[in-house]
Amino acid sequence: MQSIPTRREFIRRRKQLKLTQKELAVELGLPSDELRKLEKGDQPVRKLHLLALDQLRLEAAIQDSSLVTATMLLNAEQLLESVGYRITRNQ
Questions:
Q1: Cβ-based neighbours of 38, under 8 Å, separated by 6 or more
Q2: pTM recorded for the entire structure
């Protein structure tokens, strides 16, 4: 069973990116007031929001591989599988 995304998780991931609300809103193409509503809990955080943050984190990791976490890799695999890619692992 998958957990429901929370505003605390959203905020934690934004802070990992070291972005302000305004900077993240620009990166995601969202109005600043919508981002504030997500973080205040006035609007539900959806899995799509967290995946968008993970995409930004992956892009940052291209510049600095120490930023990649196991959770990010798992989320990337799940996203790829959800759109039809099959993940195979060499043993």
A1: 7, 10, 44, 45, 49
A2: 0.63
